[in-house]
């Protein structure tokens, strides 16, 4: 079953796109901090390449979601996590991009200052999503199979599959956006106000005071 007029399809894809748009704006606005000494910390070109690739992975995942390729979309979300973690920790640990195991990447990230203090919860969210997405990579059980036998199967719409993808995206992208807004807080406060509003919509509620540098008691 597939129809662009299907209300559930429109509702789910719109919710995903809203978070993706916030992430895209956040990533594009960070470009100004690349090798810019006016910001502390500034972003290296290599870091920005990984952040941009993480965003690209999400965009491609949404393209697959729109066509009903849910397992493929999850593989791309998994890739986005790996690229994101490498990006935000690269300034502390330059060798993180040479780690052959993603679990080694997470081990480095877990003890980094990027994910210290209140940000540990963001690490836990991202790590939990990675573990869940790995079940599709390794085809943990029947629920993680799609049994596609012909290209004529696409495009199609499956409400449960789309809903599952939406849940992953709505948990993952706000964690990305919140972390970037905290780590690159100077840049966040200089984002053009209309774009800043787009970013702010996806910052996790419990971190909004911290992002805005308000006293937390």
Kindly report the average pLDDT value: 89
Principal-axes geometry comes out as: globular
Total E-strand runs:
0
Helix fraction, binned, reads: 55-70%
Provide structural commentary.
- By secondary structure, the protein is mainly alpha-helical.
- Helix content is 62%, strand content 0%.
- The protein is built from 9 helices and no strands.
- Helix 3 crosses helix 4.
- The radius of gyration is 18 Å and the shape is globular.
Write the layout of secondary structure elements.
Elements: H1 7-30, H2 45-67, H3 70-89, H4 102-110, H5 120-137, H6 159-183, H7 185-188, H8 193-200, H9 208-211
Helix pairs in contact: 1-2, 1-6, 1-8, 2-3, 3-4, 3-5, 3-6, 5-6
Concise account of the structure shown:
The protein is an all-alpha fold and 217 residues long. The chain has nine helices and no strands. The protein is 62% helix and 0% strand.
Primary descriptors:
217 residues, mainly alpha, 62% helix
């Amino acid at each position: 079953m597939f129809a662009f007029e299907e209300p559930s399809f429109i509702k789910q894809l719109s919710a995903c796109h809203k978070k993706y748009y916030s992430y895209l704006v956040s990533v594009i606005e960070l470009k100004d901090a690349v090798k810019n000494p006016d910001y502390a910390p500034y972003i290296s070109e290599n870091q920005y390449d990984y952040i941009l690739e993480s965003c690209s992975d999400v965009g491609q995942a949404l393209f697959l979601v729109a066509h009903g390729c849910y397992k493929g979309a999850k593989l791309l979300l998994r890739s986005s996590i790996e690229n994101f973690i490498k990006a935000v920790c690269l300034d502390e640990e330059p060798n993180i991009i040479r780690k052959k195991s993603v679990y080694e990447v997470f081990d480095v990230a877990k003890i980094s200052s990027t994910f210290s203090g209140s940000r540990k919860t963001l690490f836990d969210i991202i790590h939990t999503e990675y573990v869940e997405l790995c079940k599709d990579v390794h085809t943990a059980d029947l629920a993680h199979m799609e049994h596609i036998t012909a290209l004529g199967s696409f495009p199609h719409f499956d409400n449960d599959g789309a809903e599952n993808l939406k849940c992953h995206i709505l948990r993952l992208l706000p964690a990305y956006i919140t972390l970037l807004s905290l780590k690159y807080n100077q840049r966040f406060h200089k984002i053009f106000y209309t774009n800043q509003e787009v970013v702010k919509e996806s910052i996790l509620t419990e971190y909004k005071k911290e992002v805005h540098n308000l006293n937390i008691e």
